Amino acid sequence: MAILITGGAGYIGSHACVELLNTGYELVVLDNFSNSKPEVLSRIKEITGKNFTFYEVDLLSKEAIDSIFSRHDINAVIHFAGYKAVGESVCEPLKYYHNNITGTLNLCDVMNKHGVHDLVFSSSATVYGIPHQIPITEDFPLGATNPYGRTKQMIEEILRDLYVSDKRWSVALLRYFNPIGAHESGRIGEDPNGIPNNLMPYISQVAAGKLEQLNVFGDDYETVDGTGVRDYIHVVDLAKGHLKALERVLLTTGVDAYNLGSGFGHSVLEMVDAFEQASGQEIPYVIKDRRPGDVGICFADTQKANQNLNWVAEKTLTDMCKDTWKWQSNNPAGYTKTQDHVTSIQLAP
Ligand code: NAD
Ligand code: UDP
Q1: What enzyme class is recorded for this protein (predicted)?
Q2: What is the mean pLDDT of residues 236-241?
Q3: Which residue's CA is the closest to the ligand 2 atom numbered 20?
């Protein structure tokens, strides 16, 4: 019996692999490295001392997914694989709809064919769009405001329809807030391509001297200091949430959405201050106009996940900043090896 992890070479997937391996799960991992590097796989093995099977496979190839299910006794899937850049999704919507939705349809079709109906899906707080109230509960109306968010919202609806049609399906829709941080070892972390879009990787590259200064997008929101407020969650806490969700889908049926956040909001300037304290580095910044499409304040009500999944985010803002800095300073260029000694079986497309 094994758990299939799609997108397991990515930022959140790699941290989830560590937690799952440490708990004793047998893993089969797939990724097409469209936004990740093979080196992460040997780092996961190094941290855990455990082995797993990896396939360099694209979810757009149904035959390749089918071949994995034929080779392994898969009993559940954690589905991270997808594109995630909001701005890019606005410029290239078809690329996003095709990869995220067709990839998920292929996966679910093959799961169904092989009698596997337990699924943990990476959704996002972006499905809420502009929240009418704070904190956000799972029953808020959904209204994603960009193609990326709409892929998540559509996939949620598709997965709900699957359960309507076949009561064997058991699905957890995990709506992540703002994952940041890295594994405490400093061996795996977020490795964005080019100039980061998100706040935390941007701050850490300013701290490392790779970027000159932080642009703070707006200081006229109705928040504690006028800058945008978000719910930051340590990626290891988030990864542990997947273990809890997996345990639940294995025991139940139905489709349930869960907010995975800390339940607390922090402003951009609070994050700058926390990072300076944790790293001992100065973060020069300049106030700029608001970023188009941004909401002023967004944080989660996490009671449903706390109660139903028996999960709570435990790490502090200091942990998040310290671990981000450890990863950044130990790996200034991210993952750099072009070749790696991983057991990688490439399937024909
Ligand atoms: P990531 O880009 O680091 O990881 C995604 C992985 O999926 C990458 O390794 C990529 O190579 C792989 N992938 C993409 N398309 C694929 C395909 N067709 N076939 C096989 N592999 C494919 O992203 P992440 O930050 O780890 O996010 C994981 C999931 O969580 C994504 O679905 C993302 O949309 C969602 N999410 C992320 C955040 C965030 O802030 N990081 C927030 C909310 C939701
Ligand atoms: N932000 C910023 N400068 C940056 C990146 C982000 O001021 O270079 C702000 C952004 O306006 C928001 C917060 O930081 O208020 C978090 O942004 P991020 O893109 O990380 O997450 P999201 O907005 O998608 O929740």
Answers
A1: isomerase
A2: 98
A3: 198
- Over the chain, what is the mean pLDDT? 96
Left (φ > 0), alpha (ψ -120 to 50) or beta: where does 310 sit? left
Q: Is the CATH code 3.40.50.720 the one for domain 2-330?
A: yes
Percent of the chain at pLDDT exceeding 70 = 97
List all residues whose CB is within 6 A of at least one atom of ligand 1: 7, 9-13, 31-36, 58-60, 80-84, 99, 103, 122, 124, 176, 179
Examine residue 147 and say whether the peptide bond preceding it is cis (omega within 30 degrees of 0): no
Residue 148 annotated among the catalytic residues of the structure: yes
pLDDT in the model for residue 344: 54
From the CA of 35, give the closest atom in ligand 1. Answer: 11
Sign of the C-alpha dihedral, residues 84, 86, 87, 90?
A: positive
d(CA 44, CA 188): 8
Give the percent of the chain with pLDDT over 90. Answer: 93
Residue type, 60: L
Exactly one of 11, 83, 148, 221 is catalytic; name it.
Answer: 148
User: Alpha carbon of 335 to those of 162, 327, 328: distances in Å?
Assistant: 38, 11, 11
pLDDT of residue 132: 87
Closest CA to 232 of 205, 203, 259, 262: 262
> Residue with structure tokens 């100065």?
282
Domain residues of the chain, as ranges?
2-330
